[in-house]
Amino acid sequence: MKNTIGNQLTLTLFGESHGEAVGCVLDGIPAGTEIDEALIRSFLERRKGAAQISTARREPDLFRLVSGVRNNRAEGTPVTVLIENKEARRSDYDKLWNVPRPSHADYPARLRYEGFEDLSGGGHFSGRLTAPLCAAGAICMSMLEKKGIRIASHILSLHGILDEAFDPLDPAEQIDVLKGKSFPVLRAAAEERMIEAVKAAREQKDSLGGILETAVTGMPGGIGEPFFDSVESMLSHAMFSIPAVKGIAFGAGFDFAAMRGSEANDPYVIRNGKIVTETNHNGGISGGITNGMPLIFTLAVRPASSIGLPQKSVDLETMQETELIIEGRHDPCILHRAVPCAEAMTALVLADLLIQRYGPAWFREG
Amino acid sequence: MKNTIGNQLTLTLFGESHGEAVGCVLDGIPAGTEIDEALIRSFLERRKGAAQISTARREPDLFRLVSGVRNNRAEGTPVTVLIENKEARRSDYDKLWNVPRPSHADYPARLRYEGFEDLSGGGHFSGRLTAPLCAAGAICMSMLEKKGIRIASHILSLHGILDEAFDPLDPAEQIDVLKGKSFPVLRAAAEERMIEAVKAAREQKDSLGGILETAVTGMPGGIGEPFFDSVESMLSHAMFSIPAVKGIAFGAGFDFAAMRGSEANDPYVIRNGKIVTETNHNGGISGGITNGMPLIFTLAVRPASSIGLPQKSVDLETMQETELIIEGRHDPCILHRAVPCAEAMTALVLADLLIQRYGPAWFREG
Amino acid sequence: MKNTIGNQLTLTLFGESHGEAVGCVLDGIPAGTEIDEALIRSFLERRKGAAQISTARREPDLFRLVSGVRNNRAEGTPVTVLIENKEARRSDYDKLWNVPRPSHADYPARLRYEGFEDLSGGGHFSGRLTAPLCAAGAICMSMLEKKGIRIASHILSLHGILDEAFDPLDPAEQIDVLKGKSFPVLRAAAEERMIEAVKAAREQKDSLGGILETAVTGMPGGIGEPFFDSVESMLSHAMFSIPAVKGIAFGAGFDFAAMRGSEANDPYVIRNGKIVTETNHNGGISGGITNGMPLIFTLAVRPASSIGLPQKSVDLETMQETELIIEGRHDPCILHRAVPCAEAMTALVLADLLIQRYGPAWFREG
Amino acid sequence: MKNTIGNQLTLTLFGESHGEAVGCVLDGIPAGTEIDEALIRSFLERRKGAAQISTARREPDLFRLVSGVRNNRAEGTPVTVLIENKEARRSDYDKLWNVPRPSHADYPARLRYEGFEDLSGGGHFSGRLTAPLCAAGAICMSMLEKKGIRIASHILSLHGILDEAFDPLDPAEQIDVLKGKSFPVLRAAAEERMIEAVKAAREQKDSLGGILETAVTGMPGGIGEPFFDSVESMLSHAMFSIPAVKGIAFGAGFDFAAMRGSEANDPYVIRNGKIVTETNHNGGISGGITNGMPLIFTLAVRPASSIGLPQKSVDLETMQETELIIEGRHDPCILHRAVPCAEAMTALVLADLLIQRYGPAWFREG
């Protein structure tokens, strides 16, 4: 399905970085759903990143809901988000066309689109396409919040600097702390050190990688499907659509490799009359299906591939090796900008799974 | 789509561990594709695991191709693999029904299917369902091999014991070494230590986790789609359908977190007149699309949740905490059994992407 | 998706006429749904046709539910129906391979599958594949009946002999009359004349076409989607999968061509406190969505293409024109056998649309 | 999938009649495909209808290709067509909201969207949504034309006035005649009488139904899939998304009902060294798959439901019967406007099927 994702709630993404517009069509939002434009704006704002450490391109990101919404309510028909590109500057990028930027989409895109692709600013591969993803996710997020489901992501590590991890049994208070933060880190000391590292990387014309962690509270148990539509399958499919994500792990993730079954299993116990697990190594999912505990997963985010340092590459026309210096705007760190994307895609996937399980009307009930 | 995966090449999975049969329908295999029954058998054999360290259940796993194949050639219509359950023993498991096994699907499945699920031996959630996955994957594997594409997985680590990693630039010889191994490890010393660890775990009625690594050579560049059908999205979606997989990482994966862009980027160079990358930290994928380098990814596999040790759980009827001892067969290690599954799902995903890119006839060309 | 149809309730079809088996996988049946094996048997029985006028092949059509059902209840996992071919006789058909039967799938299938297709008895194109369709439809039918939704089809015309049409405002009593009939015609006199015409056609080694009419009562209004998933789109998509169906029309259908808007519109009125339409020219659907009135549609069914008379054809090997006499079994009339197929596919489509609208739990509510 | 159709070539439709815009996202157009804006304009022009007999609303229908196109070539990424609504006049329609127009979507949409729908001018159900369908179809049409595949529709009958039918064996010259006609009828005398009938209907504040016929030449044989993705299934699914279409029939269609097999079958013969059929009663499709002969099908189009005459309806608030007079713009005939829609949807479906069969590169070959 290429640029469409989802089953009962589908998202179709379109646009190029320096074309006329980027946007998306979100189909399957139950009629009557409240559309919170302020929440959309706040997602877009966070995606742009804190000014002092992010890209120089300052698109206003004014979104228009060109269909599917009337009087701040979803009509039940496709909701289209359109974000015009005000500051498109194709010329900046033209010289790159024959010298692909290392670890960018340039060269694979050339093989895929055979020279017809628009690579200005990454074209359709640009991080700019995450703006409509965030807008769509914000709409799903308000649906979930009405049902008591909360989602938050933070920077768990940045170039080795560690934040505190989510409490896998009860991350509710941590989620509170993160609300609305443009550089979402739980411990102030870690945040400070991370920002310093980012600034240093900018000085060095380099970029830094890290790990994001996402927590979801309030998810009912019994959501997801065995095998191909497991919650893990659906979430991972969606997460790898966020540029620079190169890994995902649920619960203990790669730490399971050194564990025994007796350590990795989460025993069932009764707390306050409800069945819960005593630990939550499995990140709220067993057999691909939610068990009612918080969902916890991490994403490996590679350093942004656009850096100002000179790099080796190849001229595709002359087939000669050459040195490349990428002019223009670079983000020394994209982790904080990926945070609203991770939250948005999580919201989209969970809303879709919940519609499939309970029907669209469930979101309108008390 | 629940139990169906794929776009032009689709796999629909069915069956329960102790029902009449497990099987799958593989639709979209190009007419004329040679069906190599010996390769299917070898996948099923490897999935059953080496006798001395795996489960006592010894199903013959005799598969029947009940549709879509004539004279060892795909007819172009759906290929159905049926594997009857000869040794189904529902009674062994009935007592578990009200005391869910920790970190098994039992409790989530109860919430999902509301008491109508068949949990004998895991029912539809059983690892037994991976037998038809392996059969389907074997069919795709022979298609790919004819086009010079090779896939192999091995146990990169088992409870901390490390095998040698794939050479990300050229794993071809390592793939040769692994061919047909029932306990696929590259270094003999590591293999020996791993097997000892597994035997010890069996003594202790416990189980061990680990990491699998997969390499693919010969993949053309330009395969995959930006965003939702990226190679990473498609592979991860498929991999999380393998029971016990809790994480996936491409190339450097979670190690990217401590890298700089200047370290993480793979510079383009010319070697033997062809464009390649000098390093392959990105596992052969940039922007979600193959770049012509080997695909490399790892899977975190949690220790099998079925263990013989007593565990805490809850009686769902009385809502009392209780102790559970799981009788019956347990695998102290499922990593080697997950290897053909990982290879199979990789083959399925790549064959589907290649059909979409080049059309079904491509697989029949020289 | 080739051999898979449906969104939340999907059907995957497999098998060949003279292969090992035909069958299907029905995925998405809500857990706990009662599986009425007697109803499945009755659908299969009706599909085989009344003995005196149908094909000589007398397959017992013993179906096995090899997955997804336990104690006559759906488990919620894929339900697989397997029907082994007991009387497969490949040899009867081999000589046809190079001389395609006019208006059969033989020649198009040769172009599609390039010589690898199995054409014995029509292979995957055989009417025999409708047996699993009927079994799947029977399962959906019992779901619908529990919710007060009833479906019936009858032979509206056979080679010009007309039955009485359904009362578009209230066909309930007519549906009663048809229940379980193996040659479903409303008026006894028409039935008699039709059967005579069929017998005469058999004498003449020829076959006859006709029209089926289907009525559905009890459908709630508001089901379906504008544009691509309109009830008309979904039903027609499904109906054309029944071999020999060459046309579909909703309500007044092709008679609309001679009507004025003032005649064709169905005015809203109040009857017994409920909004209904005074006429039902539109067959219960406006804007692609049900309006609460009975669904009414007709299917044009071409005469079976297998006839005993000599026909002109071409030898594909020698590229010479030749005369073809098709040996073996021929149905002079397939209309009555298409009736349970039409009912089955209608049930499948409506159950899928209802699950999407109300969620799977709706089918379990009082 | 609600507002998305297609497999490898997908179309997602959005917008409301009196909202900000209507549009669509067309995904899967092979990179490098020439985008012929003049052809798009001509489709939109024809869809608006000949001025003297069509609706008073004169939208300029200026389309923008806001993504996926650069230098008149498809980039290979999603092509988005945006048509802003310049003449949106919500107020005209507000009074209708509680008195549904007979045989319009109003009442079913109320049941479906529970009061949140936008019904101004039909909202998402409006015929205006066919503008982006036509634009998308025009893009597919130029792809097909480059491969020698031609599509044309005409008004076969209008309120009983008959045009000449397509020659099912060779409609090429008739297709030439129709090219670019805004009121596409083959025989001038029929055209004249039809236009008079339309004018009379307008006088009478009424509307007229009719039948469209579509022909396709140059389609290779072997396209389509048995059962659910038959050419008939795919085309019918698409055609019923055109508002007012209530029936579809392939080849002889409902006339098959009075035919014998010996009359209905199309014998194979050799002409100019090629295998063709001597007749073409089956409209170029057997077993759901093209046989290389022209595709021929007809659509029943009901009279437009918007008429100026007073009609009976019900006030949904007071639940009283009432009389309704629909103010505003009405089309006495929509047949000629449906013609480019039928051509467009045909082009979309066939391009999708061809991409699946031959791969996207086929469209770029000589």
Annotated CATH architecture of chain A: 4-Layer Sandwich
Tally of helical segments of chain A:
9
N- and C-termini, Cα separation of chain A: 35 Å
Low-pLDDT regions of chain A:
none
CATH topology of chain A: Chorismate synthase, AroC fold
**Beta-strand fraction estimate of chain A:** 15-25%
Identify the overall geometry of chain A. Answer: globular
CATH class of chain A equals: Alpha Beta
**Strands of the largest sheet of chain A, in order across it?**
1-2-3-7-4
Radius of gyration of chain A: 21 Å
Largest sheet of chain A: 5 strands, antiparallel
**Overall structural domain count of chain A:** 1
Q: Helicity range of the residues of chain A?
A: 25-40%
How would you classify the helix and strand content of chain A by structural class?
alpha+beta
Largest interface chains and counts = A-B, 115 and 113 residues
Mean pLDDT of chain A: 94
Oligomer: homotetramer
What are the secondary-structure elements of chain A, in order, as H or E?
EEEHEEEEHHHEEHHEHEHEEEEEEEH
Could you tell me the number of beta strands of chain A? 18
